Structures are given as structure tokens and as C-alpha cells.
């Protein structure tokens, strides 16, 4: 089935040396309280100073736009699909600091970025086993965590990426900071290693010059994005910065990478951009494949379906857009929107063909896809007192759900520092599990 293209693509990709980067714009507002986790349009005299945001009301913000020109895709109900869903809160975790900014899971451990520190919990009994980066408050908020080649990578507000190693005693030791001192020394004498970041100020192109907002990995490569509008690629055994691209016209808030190496970036400039090698102008370099434009406000979150044929994007316009591959339309087109959240979409994940969305409206919605591309909102999880900033989930062990099918174990983190643990089980009307 063919769909009309909403893509505006470009064949030119600028480098970080092209233009100085002004400060990014804010991405959402909420009337609950003040948060300092998101980019602000107000210039701050120091990166380490607390950025405060006007959280007046969404009533006068683009967050109220719900993209009426995009058709709705949630025309199904659980009854239509002969599905039953069970969702219960198993536990609530409270790290020592407020502002849960990112959640990640690896090797039966939960990593919860909270303020400047990362708390690590055992998934079996939710015991706190380690807290690291807590001795360096100058790093600012920890904004992303990922894993590659036995190492843990954390992204920070102070423009740096830190590399950690888990010891046999389950402690996390700092082993490097990217870019490494060796990488800097290799380049510092060459004028071509520097780029203008603002008037009368230069920095090396291998380093970010604003908060590192996201990390994503693929095989032996890592991607980082920043409020400085740049996408950087890190590779090799020493994880050197091998490419830097001025990817957007405003702060980049989200990045995901597919198994084939295709990179998707979402920005406060309302655009999603698709990057890869096949269409690059220079052999071996990352190039721009397509620009996806349909959101009316800042894009905050991206997720890929299990088979990576569908991209989901969430923004301040309260809509989750569904993009599908369409070769005749130059890569991807928007096929419709998922609506229901009353405020900005802040996080998206896809696990076992279930899509989870967290919002500034303090709820989590669970979606599944039925026939002919239609979707169903299975349930809405509430209970958080502040916006849901991060989600992570994985198939659960059957024994953890009382001997029944395992379903999915979901963790949702909010700005007040609370992490809720949910057990999600989706079954057919006959009672047989769909996820195990």
C-alpha cells in the first residue's frame, strides 16, 4: 500500500565548523514544578549553573497542537483484538536524589540516572548495590546510559561522556572520559581540529560543547547527540571520535540506531533526520538519508519497532507519529498518529511488540499493533506525581510473576525521583500468553 510522502530530504550535510551554535530552545512546559533537565533558550553564564524553565502552562504552548492533518491509528480496542491485559505495580524505588533522568538495564542490573549520580539496583530483589559519579557534582545531570564491549557509558550535562568498568565486587570504576586525553593530544596542534562554537571561542570538533543528551550503540560504534546540535560517531578499540556532523538547527533530544547502522535523530527543531552510509557524499562517511517533517513542536523521543520497519516519534505536540518505510517516497512516510496523552511525550520504548510511552501528563500508555497498521491503547498506567521522564522494560522471568507467564517488567522514572516497577501481562481471550 502506498502512502503520500511527508518527507523533505536534503543531500547536503554541514559539519560542526560551519556556524557557531546558539543556545537551544526549551522542549516542554508543565505547571507542576520547575525542572532543570531540559534545554533552555536562556543563555546561562556557566554550564554548571542550574537552568530554570518557565513551566507556566501548556495552554499557550505548541504542546496543545495534536496534528489534526494526520489520521488517527488507534481504532482498535483490546476486545476487538481478543486481548486481556494485566498491569500491576510491584514496587517503588526511590534513589537518593530527585529527577530520574534516564533508566537502562544490562546484565540483570537497573541503572537509574538521578541528578549527577547513577544508582544501580539488582533486578531480582531491587537492592541498591552501587552508586557512582556521586563524587563529581560538577558533571551536572547524567542524561543517558548505554553499554558496549563490557563497558558502561554515561552522558553528562558538562559535555562529557564517561566510561566505566564493573568490577567483580560490583563497583563501577571510571576508566576514561571521552574524548580521551590521547585523542586530544593527537590533534591539538592542528588548526583544522578546532571549530568556532561562539564568538571568540573555539573547541576541538571531537568534543561536544553543550550537554550530551543521548547515546546509542551498534556493534563496535557509539553515537552521541547533544544540545550543541551535533551528532558524533565514536569507534575503534580506543573509542576515538571519527565523525562529527552538524545534524540539526536546534538541540538534539533523542537518538536511536538500527541493526543495519541507520541512525535516527530527533530535535527541538521539530525534525527527525535519518543518517547512514549508503547515501553519503563521501565514501565511508555518514550522510543524510532523509529529513522527516510533520511534528509541530520539539521531538523528545524515538523508538524502533522490533523488526525496525517502523519508527515511532514523540513530541511536545502530544502525538506519537508512526513512520513506515516507503521506498517510492525516499525512505519513510508518516502513516498516522497515536493520541491520548494530554501533555508532551517525553519517552518511548518498544519491547516484545508493545510500545510504551511516558508523558508530562504523568501517565504511561501501552500500545499494540493489530491488523492493517491499526493500533490499540491497551491500558494507561497512572500513579506518578510528576512527568514520566524515562522508561525501560524487558521480558520478565515467569517465576517473578507467581508462576504465570512472565510478560514484561516495566520501570518508569519520574522527575520527583520515584521509579515504579510494573508487571505487564498480555493474554488472548483464551488465557494463553502473547508474551513469554
Query: Low-confidence parts lasting 5 or more residues at pLDDT below 50?
Result: 1-36, 40-64
Strand content: over 45%
**C-alpha Rg (nearest Å):** 21 Å
- The percent range for helix content is under 10%
Which structural class matches the secondary elements? mainly beta
- CA(first)-CA(last) distance: 32 Å
Strand line-up in the sheet with most strands: 1-30-29-28
- Please tally the helical runs, counting DSSP H or I stretches of 4 or more residues: 1
Query: What is the general shape?
Result: globular
Could you report the average pLDDT, rounded to the nearest whole number?
81
Sheet with most strands: 4 strands, antiparallel
Total strand segments: 30
WD repeats: 245-275, 292-333, 338-367
Keywords: Repeat, WD repeat
Organism: Solanum verrucosum
Protein name: F-box and wd40 domain protein
Describe the structure.
This protein is mostly beta strands and 436 residues long. The chain is 2% helix and 45% strand. It contains one helix and 30 strands. The chain has a four-stranded antiparallel β-sheet, with no helix packed on it. A hairpin with a 4-residue loop joins strand 21 (310-315) and strand 22. The chain is globular and about 65 Å long. Residues 1-36 and 40-64 have low confidence and may be disordered. WD repeats lie at residues 245-275, 292-333, 338-367. Residues 1-38 are annotated as: Disordered. Keywords: Repeat, WD repeat. This is F-box and wd40 domain protein.
Amino acid at each position: 500500500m502506498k502512502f503520500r510522502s511527508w518527507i523533505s530530504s536534503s543531500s547536503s550535510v554541514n559539519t560542526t565548523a560551519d556556524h557557531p551554535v546558539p543556545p537551544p530552545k526549551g522542549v516542554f512546559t508543565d505547571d507542576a514544578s520547575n525542572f532543570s533537565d531540559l534545554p533552555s533558550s536562556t543563555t546561562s553564564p556557566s554550564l554548571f549553573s542550574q537552568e530554570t524553565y518557565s513551566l507556566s502552562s501548556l495552554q499557550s504552548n505548541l504542546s496543545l497542537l495534536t496534528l489534526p492533518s494526520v489520521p488517527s491509528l488507534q481504532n482498535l480496542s483490546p476486545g476487538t483484538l481478543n486481548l486481556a491485559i494485566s498491569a500491576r505495580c510491584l514496587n517503588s524505588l526511590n534513589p537518593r536524589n530527585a529527577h530520574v533522568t534516564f533508566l537502562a538495564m544490562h546484565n540483570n542490573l537497573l541503572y537509574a540516572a538521578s541528578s549527577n549520580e547513577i544508582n544501580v539496583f539488582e533486578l531480582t530483589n531491587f537492592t541498591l548495590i552501587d552508586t557512582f559519579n556521586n563524587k563529581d557534582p560538577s558533571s551536572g545531570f547524567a542524561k543517558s546510559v548505554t553499554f558496549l564491549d563490557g563497558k558502561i557509558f554515561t552522558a553528562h550535562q558538562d559535555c562529557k561522556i564517561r566510561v566505566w568498568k564493573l568490577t567483580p565486587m560490583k563497583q563501577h570504576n571510571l576508566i576514561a572520559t571521552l574524548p580521551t586525553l590521547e585523542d586530544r593530544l593527537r590533534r591539538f596542534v592542528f588548526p583544522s581540529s578546532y571549530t568556532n562554537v561562539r564568538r571568540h571561542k573555539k573547541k576541538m570538533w571531537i568534543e561536544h560543547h553543550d550537554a550530551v543528551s543521548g547515546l546509542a550503540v551498534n556493534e563496535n560504534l557509539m553515537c552521541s547527540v547533544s544540545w550543541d546540535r551535533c551528532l558524533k560517531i565514536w569507534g575503534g578499540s580506543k573509542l576515538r571520535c571519527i565523525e562529527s556532523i552538524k545534524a540539526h538547527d536546534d538541540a538534539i533530544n533523542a537518538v536511536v540506531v538500527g541493526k543495519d547502522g541507520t541512525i535516527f535523530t530527533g530535535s527541538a527543531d521539530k525534525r527527525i533526520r535519518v543518517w547512514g552510509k549508503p547515501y553519503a557524499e563521501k565514501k565511508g562517511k555518514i550522510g543524510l538519508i532523509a529529513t522527516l517533517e510533520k511534528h509541530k513542536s520539539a521531538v523528545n523521543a524515538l523508538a524502533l519497532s522490533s523488526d525496525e520497519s517502523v519508527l515511532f516519534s514523540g513530541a511536545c505536540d502530544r502525538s506519537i507519529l508512526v513512520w513506515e518505510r516507503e521506498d517510492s517516497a525516499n525512505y519513510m512516510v508518516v502513516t498516522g498518529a497515536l493520541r491520548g496523552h494530554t501533555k508532551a511525550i517525553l519517552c518511548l520504548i518498544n519491547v516484545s511488540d508493545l510500545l510504551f510511552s511516558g508523558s508530562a501528563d504523568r501517565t504511561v500508555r501501552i500500545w499494540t499493533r493489530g491488523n492493517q497498521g491499526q493500533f490499540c491503547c491497551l491500558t494507561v498506567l497512572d500513579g506518578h506525581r510528576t512527568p514520566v521522564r524515562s522508561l525501560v522494560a524487558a521480558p520478565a522471568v515467569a517465576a517473578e510473576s507467581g508462576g504465570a507467564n512472565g510478560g514484561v517488567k516495566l520501570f518508569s522514572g519520574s522527575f520527583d525521583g520515584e521509579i515504579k516497577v510494573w508487571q505487564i501481562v498480555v493474554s488472548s481471550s483464551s488465557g494463553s500468553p502473547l508474551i513469554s
